[in-house]
Write a structure and sequence with these properties.
The complex is a heterotrimer of chains A (about 40), B (about 230) and C (about 290). Chain B has about 230 residues and is an all-alpha fold. Chain B is about 85% helix and about 0% strand. In chain B, helix 9 packs antiparallel against helix 10. Classes of the chains: A mainly alpha (about 40), B mainly alpha (about 230), C mainly alpha (about 290).
């Protein structure tokens, strides 16, 4: 039973971490875009 | 020389003979490969200290891992040499077919690695007291096919990795994952011949398939890679 | 398109929760393995999703190289159609080993054609490369899930974490290694030529897959391993849950790919703008 929960938890941890990195990259990009807009 | 150009075409033959002559005079690649492989033999023999039965089981793996690492030394130099004086750019603008350059480079590396293997094999046999229990002659086609498998992919990936930031690190990172089936085939075939338990025929067939697939793929894609900007 | 994303995300979340419920509670408990068998619903559906993503990466890489040039594009289209048709015909002509359905081979052939032309229709020649990055990255994420849930299943069932000779698990590991090296190549070379060399590597990687599979398959026959069969027929109720999970994870993968693809396109636009700006600014500074 604990292996079952470990596997399901691991799956969602991996996906959450990946979604987190995606969100971080989106934020960084948004800041960059804002900077470009300000320069103009 | 004329026989060579008849077989390969003028451009490939010229490039090949230039590379071989350069290597003959400087002996850069072969010396570093030889010393590297020697170190591998010595270090492995210390760290395992095997008896005859054990060494028969692990020798295949040791030999080929050693040669693979040593071959990377030569493969890294393949294109780096041409980069220095913009020879590669000159090649790119010339009308010469890209594939003959690739073939010449791959054959050159093949010759260097084969020389290395011919020199190192006796040493391996001495250090590990090897004696083949299976048909020993099969080791020759295994070595030739296996070397071509490493070299054809290695030459191609060396051309890929010269376009990246840290090229010397990049080549093994690209080459090793792709050559896992070839390496597995070489190691298993050698072990089969040495231990005489199984026939190595399937592995030789797999190596042949690997060589054919990747030689064709390299010839198809090399022009794109060479002319990539 | 932008407004569709939250709706799609909501549907995906609902599907995933329903699939999770079905996998944990709805599906019958396996007799010999017990509850641990339920890992299988996540493991297998992630594996299928990862393989499809890698296959799309292969298709996108081919298209990136081929569509630069009209004649090679046309030739490749015909080759794809021919391959699909030959597969369909061969499925019914060639004598197949026991356990492989003729119709499944034929439908694979048809779906390969469909997928190729779908990608061709949906993505412009410049954007297929962004698709290739996206699918490779998301594929590696799903493949990681497969590689972690695999040992977690193997440990209680076979008593070992990892069986070197297990064909599917080990080939998946090699596949993972190949695509990680692909992502590394893309990371280490950021210039105009990256897409081309990355596409070349992706094609090499895809060609390697059958060789990897056969080599490990034969390796296993020489090195006896714990026998790991499929366990024969699968209970229809279990199959139903598996397919539901697969559908949910495919939707999830599409969602993640969608976000990753938008990120890639935006990133390229920003890079282009920055490059353009630096070009425009230079004369002013000289003056």
């Amino acid at each position: 039973m604990k292996f079952l929960f470990a596997a399901y938890a691991a799956t969602w941890i991996i996906h959450t971490v990946y979604m987190g990195t995606l969100a971080r990259r989106f934020n960084r990009l948004r800041n960059q875009i804002r900077e470009i807009a300000r320069k103009k | 020389m004329s026989l060579l150009s008849g077989l390969l075409g003028n451009i490939a033959a010229a490039t090949l003979s230039k590379d071989v002559r350069l290597e003959w005079r400087s002996k850069d690649a072969i010396n570093s490969m030889l010393f590297f492989a020697l170190l591998v033999v010595v270090i492995f023999s210390f760290s395992f200290d095997p008896n005859a039965e054990e060494s028969r089981r692990i020798a295949g793996g040791l030999i080929w891992v050693g040669f693979l690492f040593a071959a990377v030394v030569a493969l890294n130099q393949t294109w780096a040499r041409e980069l220095r004086n913009q020879v590669l750019d000159a090649y790119r603008v010339s009308p010469a077919p890209a594939n003959s350059l690739f073939l010449a480079k791959a054959l050159g590396n093949f010759i260097f690695v084969c020389v290395l293997e011919a020199l190192m094999a006796p040493l391996f046999i001495l250090f590990y007291n090897l004696r083949a229990l299976g048909p020993g002659w099969q080791l020759i086609p295994i070595a030739l096919l296996g070397t071509w498998a490493i070299v054809v992919n290695g030459t191609f990936f060396a051309a890929l990795s010269i376009r990246t930031r840290s090229r010397e690190i990049m080549l093994p990172l690209l080459l090793f994952p792709i050559s896992i089936p070839a390496l597995l085939a070489m190691v298993e075939a050698t072990t089969d011949v040495l231990s005489g338990e199984y026939s190595a025929r399937f592995w030789i067939a797999l190596l042949m398939a690997y060589d054919v697939v990747f030689t064709i793929a390299s010839l198809f894609l090399f022009e794109t890679v060479l002319h990539a900007e | 398109m932008k407004r569709l994303f939250p709706i799609f995300a909501f549907i995906t979340a609902a599907l995933l929760s329903f699939a999770l419920y079905e996998a944990l509670i709805g599906a019958p408990t396996e007799q010999t393995m017990g509850d641990v068998q339920r890992i299988f619903y996540y493991h297998v559906s992630s594996a299928w999703t990862a393989f499809i993503l890698f296959f799309i990466n292969f298709v996108a890489s081919i298209q990136y190289l081929v569509r630069k040039n009209d004649s090679s594009d046309r030739i490749t289209n015909w080759i794809v159609i021919a391959l699909g048709v030959i597969t369909c015909i061969a499925a019914y002509v060639v004598h197949l080993p026991q356990g492989i359905e003729k119709s499944s081979i034929a439908s694979t052939g048809i779906s390969v054609i469909a997928l190729y032309f779908l990608v061709r229709k949906l993505f412009s020649p410049d954007n297929v490369d962004a698709l290739a990055v996206t699918t490779a990255e998301v594929g590696v994420v799903f493949c990681t899930v497969v590689l972690i849930t695999g040992p977690l299943w193997a440990r209680p069932v076979w008593g070992i974490w990892w069986a070197v000779g297990d064909v599917r698990l080990t080939s998946t590991l090699v596949l993972w290694l190949i695509y990680v090296s692909y992502l590394l190549l893309r990371k280490f070379s950021n210039s105009g030529q990256t897409p081309k060399i990355a596409a070349a590597l992706a094609i090499f990687g895809a060609l390697d897959v059958p060789l990897v599979y056969f080599s490990i398959w034969f390796f296993r026959t020489q090195h006896p391993q714990p026998v790991i069969g499929d366990g024969g027929e699968i209970d229809p109720r279990m199959l139903h849950v598996l397919l539901l999970n697969w559908l949910a994870f495919s939707c999830f993968a599409v969602m993640i790919c969608w976000a990753r693809y938008r990120l890639e396109i935006l990133k390229r636009e920003v890079e282009e703008t920055l490059a353009l700006e630096s070009l425009l600014e230079e004369p002013r500074s000289i003056r």
